[in-house]
Amino acid sequence: MRIAILADIHANLSALEAVIADLESLEPDRVIVAGDFQNRGPFPREVTYRLFALDWTLLRGNHEDYVIIQSQPATNVDQIDTYSWQPARWTAEQVPETVPRLKSLPISIAAEGPDGSKVCIAHGSPRSNEEGFFPSTPDAKAKEMLGASPPQILCCGHTHIPLSKQIDGTAVFNVGSVGFPFDGDSRAAYGMLSWNDGRWETELRRVGYPVADVIAAVSDPSFYEGAGPLGRIIQRELETARPHLTLFTMTFLPRVRAGELGITEAVAEYLRYPQAEIETWYAQIRKKRMANSGQQG
């Protein structure tokens, strides 16, 4: 038995096609897409209908929830919030007819191994598609996220950072991201869960694809006009294979809200920072958040 788990495609068609080609040589028994196949990237319609045409199990990630929310008429929306939500609203405009199906998708599913072992595939955690397992997530927090009846195997995504870690009796396998890896490796990442010799084995696979073509698509004026100013931040994520939207939202949008900067000026100022300085900055903020709340992300 072999189960392929794909997560966080984020409307990156080139990365998805590269993974599909890799899967054709492996012929897994089942393929599960663990959420966030829409939003962020430039090809939401193409990716969505490519997946709909395949006999794969789809889960609902937090970005599908964002698209569902933004498919509704906007009322009394703060201008700064409009910038944050614009990529999801643009995505919703590309695929409005898919919203009913998105709503029907679960955030996690359960499976069973030949030995009766409990397996869970989730976007983030079994209880939520808005929290994830980072390498730095404390064990106490991880146990809370696993719940009162944890599975023997949890395969997940959400963080865009691969992880393989034992939390008491649960093997947590974060399969990374197909479309927007955040571990510094721009190749598409996905996971394979295999039953061999009476036990489960996990394998993280990396597949190269023409990243430059996708960068060109997000740098095109048509994407910028649709996704808004944050399209430039999304482009930086593809160029560096590192997270930027969260940091920009936490640090620069408050300054825009306070009137210190215009949104275009804020984006330009952020993009002037060297990558090494941004990563140090991000690590400091996440460490502070962990100390204050015990949470990551």
Q: Biggest sheet, open or closed, and with what strands and sense?
A: 5 strands, mixed
Span of the ends, CA to CA: 33 Å
CATH architecture annotation of the largest domain: 4-Layer Sandwich
Radius of gyration: 19 Å
Total beta strand runs: 10
Give the overall silhouette.
Answer: globular
List the total number of helices: 13
What CATH first level of the largest domain would be assigned?
Alpha Beta
Unreliable spans: 293-297
H/E series: EHEHEHHHEEHEEEEEHHHHHHH
| CATH domain fold name of the largest domain | Purple Acid Phosphatase, chain A, domain 2
Overall pLDDT score: 92
Tally of separate domains? 2
Strand order of the largest sheet: 3-2-1-9-10
Q: Label the structural class.
A: alpha/beta
Strand proportion: 15-25%
Tell me the CATH superfamily of the largest domain. Metallo-dependent phosphatases
Task: Give helix % range.
Answer: 40-55%
